[in-house]
From TrEMBL:
Protein's recorded name: LysR family transcriptional regulator
Protein's organism: Bordetella ansorpii
UniProt GO molecular function: DNA-binding transcription factor activity; sequence-specific DNA binding
Gene Ontology biological-process annotations: lysine biosynthetic process via diaminopimelate; positive regulation of gene expression
DNA-binding as UniProt keyword: yes
Domain HTH lysR-type stretches: 1-58
UniProt entry tagged with the keyword Glycoprotein: no
Domain of life: Bacteria
Family (UniProt): Belongs to the LysR transcriptional regulatory family.
Keywords, ordered alphabetically: DNA-binding, Transcription, Transcription regulation
PROSITE patterns in alphabetical order: HTH_LYSR
Length: 296
């Protein structure tokens, strides 16, 4: 079966008709119909049936479509990579980071960097860690700054520093508020505004609770964003456990306390392992390490 046959089949599945596929692929309808018939012949399968004048895909077509979706998604990634390689990003530093860093450490690092590289064009993009790493692999970014995560093939990891996890709750301004470390083992989980999913901070909290042999605790309120968790805590909806950079950036109206036992997450920079790092990128990494050292 030729790739062209898979392409016409995939287009018919996407658009729901041969005419739609022909338009999508810039073909005549007769050419598209012929290619689809050739695809069915090559496979020895019936992929579509006519039901009351409408094209209906078979179960076999549905199973095949799952695989062609993966195939053409990968082809799109290859095209994106080729397009970005043609842009020759030398002399252009493109930084991806998670929002916590984009609203805390990155602005100061960029300011310090531009004192030495004032004429270098820069881009700063934010998103979740996995999203930023995908962009890095497509050569849309030169470096990704985030909390540590499992290392993907073709990437290299540069440690930047350890960030403490902090307990944040409303600052009522009333005397008698606790100021010492928050005992993680005795915190009331019914008041916890948690971070869901595979987030590194959330995972560290869960691992620490297990080490303390405490019962599993489910948060009474959950979000996927550090800043939202801290903002909810500031509204008096409970307490949040967030990284210190987020806690400091939110600042006003929050009481910030370290945890007992301490919990930390590592900040890292990812880059494509096969790429030779530029002098400018190394300079930016050094600045970031100094930024994180001041937090620690």
């Amino acid at each position: 079966m030729r790739l062209r046959h898979l392409e016409i089949f995939h287009a018919v599945m996407r658009t729901g008709s041969v005419s739609g596929a022909a338009t999508l692929l810039n073909l005549s309808q007769s050419a598209a119909s012929k290619a689809l018939a050739q695809a069915e012949h090559a496979l020895g399968l019936t992929l579509f049936q006519r039901v009351q004048g409408r094209l209906v895909h078979t179960r076999e077509a549905e199973q095949l479509y799952g695989q062609t979706t993966l195939l053409f998604a990968q082809a799109d990634n290859v095209r994106r990579l080729a397009r970005n390689l043609k842009r020759n990003p030398e002399g252009h530093l493109r930084i991806g980071c998670i929002p916590s860093f984009g609203l805390s450490a990155i602005p100061g690092a960029v300011q310090a960097f531009r004192q030495e590289y004032a004429n270098m064009p820069m881009e700063v993009l934010t998103g979740n860690g996995d999203e930023m790493v995908d962009a890095l692999l497509a050569r849309e970014l030169d470096v990704v700054i985030c909390f540590d995560m499992p290392l993907r093939p073709a990437l290299a990891r540069l440690p930047l520093g350890e960030i403490r996890v902090m307990h944040v709750s409303p600052d009522t301004g009333q005397p008698g508020q606790e100021t010492g470390p928050a005992d993680l083992e005795t915190l009331d989980a019914s008041q916890w505004i948690g971070l869901g999913g595979s987030d590194p901070v959330a995972q560290q909290i869960r691992d620490t609770w297990e080490r303390l042999q405490s019962p599993d605790a489910a948060p009474m309120l959950e979000t996927r964003t550090y800043y939202v968790a801290a903002a909810l805590a500031r509204q008096g909806l409970g307490f949040a456990l967030v990284d210190e950079l987020t806690a400091r950036a939110m600042g006003h109206g929050l009481r910030m306390r370290p945890l007992d036992p301490p919990v930390t997450v590592e900040a890292v920079a990812f880059h494509v392992a096969s790429d030779v790092r530029s002098i400018a990128l190394d300079a930016f990494i050094d600045i970031l390490r100094r930024q994180f050292a001041r937090v620690g």
